[in-house]
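Predict the holo structure. Ligand: pyridoxal-5'-phosphate.
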Amino acid sequence: MKRYDFDLQIDRANTNCVKYDLRDAVFCNPDVLPMWVADMDFETPDFVREAVIRRAEHPVYGYHFKDAPYFDAIRGWLSRRHQWEVERAWMSFVPGVVCGFTMAVMAFTQEGDEVIIQSPVYPPFHHAVTAHGRKLVYNTLKVTDQGYVMDYELLEQQAKTAKMLILCNPHNPVGRCWTRGELERLSEICLRNHVLVLSDEIHCDLVLPGYKHTPYATLGEAAAQHCLVFHAASKTFNLAGLATSTAIIPNPELRERYVFFVEALEAHLGNIFGKVATQVAMEQGDAWLAQLLDYVQGNVDYVSGFLKQHLPKVRFFKPQATYMMWLDFNGYGLSEEALWHKMTQEAALGLNRGKDFGQEGSGFFRINLACPRATVEDAMRRLQKVF
Ligand SMILES: Cc1ncc(COP(=O)(O)O)c(C=O)c1O
């Protein structure tokens, strides 16, 4: 079997790449080691690149459409990997998962309606609600000795008046791969209170060894009929620049309303290369992904061991999914500003600032471990020196 080299260092600077080329703008330091934006420093798999190059060699890049083999590739992947049998009719193209769930917020709620999110959570969950005049309701996650859990008692109250909940399944940044039981409990509350669920499952293929993703729509027929699920190959295969994702909506009425909205915005067309890349990734990506997940798990284990040994004041729970770790630096007793300065200017590390994920993220940083081990080791040395 082919072995992929995840230790390979790739120079991404000067490619208009957000993670490297916006360092100065974001961190006021052009030399930070960038471990923020959620894409990977690994090569997009060779079989994906080859397919894109083959298509690029055709001299016309006109309008295209997504054909049956494209959707069948995604259906095959979801069936094989998550035991989720998706019908072709349920699926439609959306450019991005954020764009996809934001359009759902716009299509299914009115200004002033309440939308629940489970903070700390990926910043666009907040913006999708506030930028369109909807009211954010924070069903803040609870921290226990075992890790983050959902607050169902609070959800019971909030669901009485809210119209929608945006679920991060698995969760970024806390790295939880929600169990079927946890999701069932959430779903039961949402169904009983007529709260529509948008399930962002962009990280579902990045579940680490020992854990199992539960697609929201597999919780049962009632849950399936009351949700919109968003999936993409973009995180998993490093294709985020190709802006290609899928909305999966089993309920025909919700689907009709959603697709009408998306088409009215002309947001359903997409680009040729995203189609080609996604299809081949979903058809051929299993072996590559197995190696990627092993490598990422190795990085997670390395960081966990290092922090425990050398920086015991940094609190964390090992992620069950995603290639991110959510690190709590509050044990140092420093202000948020002082921590940010120390991180960006003294350690010269470019990590995501915790408070961007919600106010409970103050004093936290999110580190992206989808990079060669040598980069991770460098990051840990920088932390050790300064903290
Ligand atoms: C939970 C989650 N949803 C969506 C996205 C972005 O998806 P897209 O680029 O398809 O909008 C990210 C990227 O980090 C993410 O973590």
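Residues 38, 96-99, 122, 168, 172, 200, 202, 232, 234, 240, 245 surround pyridoxal-5'-phosphate (CB under 6 Å). Residues 286-310 form the longest helix (25 residues).
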